[in-house]
Amino acid sequence: MKVTAAVAWKAGQPLSIEDINLDGPKHGEVLIRNVAAGVCHTDAFTLSGDDPEGIFPTVLGHEAGAIVEEIGPGVTSVQVGDHVIPLYTPECGQCKFCLSGKTNLCQAIRVTQGKGLMPDGTSRFSKNGQAIYHYMGTSSFAEYTVLPEISLAKINKAAPLDKVCLLGCGVTTGIGAVLNTAKVEPGSTVAIFGLGGIGLSAIQGAVIANAERIIAIDINEDKFEFAKQLGATDCINPKHFDQPIQDVLVDMTDGGVDYSFECIGNVNTMRSALECCHKGWGESVIVGVAGAGQEISTRPFQLVTGRVWRGTAFGGVKGRSELPDYVEKYLRGEIKIDEMVTYTMPLNDINRAFDLMHQGKSIRSVIIY
Ligand code: APR
Ligand code: ZN
Ligand code: ZN
């Protein structure tokens, strides 16, 4: 079939809206119609050319809400008409990683997904005989796309897809980092570095976990009002202090925070986030993605004296088994998403969504098909 898609032909060029070919679903695959898709920093990172794993030409996008249109042979867990959130971290339930019970990083289709291909080693997208590659196994910037069954979380049809699409990446990543990865206990003191979509979601996670003190840190004070509305108890701008921000935080909290979350992707703030943790037990979680080739540093004594440094992808959330409950939490008003959608626009305007992101003007732009 012919589908309209935003094609990234080359790194560093604007996306091009055009009609391309999409082959139907093969064994274990599902054709979905994207209803809405958020634009995330990772799409911009790949488009910039700085992502060493970026493969072109491709259809970007990985934060969608969609409806099942057709199922391929052997598909049993979803039906035509089901509402789904595509998963860039699938859940096969059978690989060593899924069976470990210790991680959400299913590896069942990792190798082909990393090459921009479906599990059988081919692409479903093409134009004039030239293959166009999939992206993160999702390619949400197309009206229709094909995904493996194991990469779809079936959700409640009552949920508006133009909002819960953000559970496909940013919102879940921030909340999951707090609830799944750090497992913050009630009464904890928490520091959150960076108040974009991820950090604001981490604040929501800290509220759900009943953290007592939630300290939000950003160099852009425009972010503070919304952070407070969501439940931040203190907002601080590192630029207002002569000392390193970790020292400020340690002074504010009688020795350091119980948990910190780096939601910027900057290796210097990753160090600050570790070093503001309380001696003996403080844990820091890296959520932001640093540029290719960058390295983190600290004095090992920080770890010897009991601080813990860890990281998380997709908030440690197993998409198929846990995302439906995130949708229910949204429907009950326990997770706020509507406020995260700063702009909506048709696919034709997608390049404007990237501009708004680069200008720091949006928490999230959502493409409505
Ligand atoms: N100190 C404090 N805050 C900072 C600093 C800094 N040195 N540098 C940037 N910030 C703030 C910005 O002002 C912004 O509010 O961090 C926030 C980052 O927000 P966004 O750019 O909207 O990013 P977000 O979508 O939340 O993603 C954060 O996670 O998935 C990754 O690639 C993504 O690395 C990025 C990170
Ligand atoms: Zn993302
Ligand atoms: Zn698996």
TrEMBL record:
InterPro entries: ADH-like_C, ADH-like_N, ADH_3, GroES-like_sf, NAD(P)-bd_dom_sf
Catalytic activity entry: a primary alcohol + NAD(+) = an aldehyde + NADH + H(+); S-(hydroxymethyl)glutathione + NADP(+) = S-formylglutathione + NADPH + H(+); a secondary alcohol + NAD(+) = a ketone + NADH + H(+); S-nitrosoglutathione + NADH + H(+) = S-(hydroxysulfenamide)glutathione + NAD(+)
E.C. designation(s): 1.1.1.1, 1.1.1.284
GO molecular function: alcohol dehydrogenase (NAD+) activity; S-(hydroxymethyl)glutathione dehydrogenase [NAD(P)+] activity; zinc ion binding
Residues of the Alcohol dehydrogenase-like N-terminal domain: 27-156
Domain Alcohol dehydrogenase-like C-terminal: from-to ranges: 197-328
Keyword list, A-Z: Metal-binding, NAD, Oxidoreductase, Zinc
Entries under Pfam families matching the protein: ADH_N, ADH_zinc_N
GO process annotations (BP): formaldehyde catabolic process
Cofactor(s) listed: Zn(2+)
Cellular component annotations (GO), alphabetically ordered: cytosol
NCBIfam families tied to this protein: adh_III_F_hyde
Similarity-based family: Belongs to the zinc-containing alcohol dehydrogenase family. Class-III subfamily.
Role description: Has high formaldehyde dehydrogenase activity in the presence of glutathione and catalyzes the oxidation of normal alcohols in a reaction that is not GSH-dependent. In addition, hemithiolacetals other than those formed from GSH, including omega-thiol fatty acids, also are substrates. Also acts as a S-nitroso-glutathione reductase by catalyzing the NADH-dependent reduction of S-nitrosoglutathione.
Protein name as catalogued: S-(hydroxymethyl)glutathione dehydrogenase
Species in which this protein is naturally found: Cycloclasticus pugetii
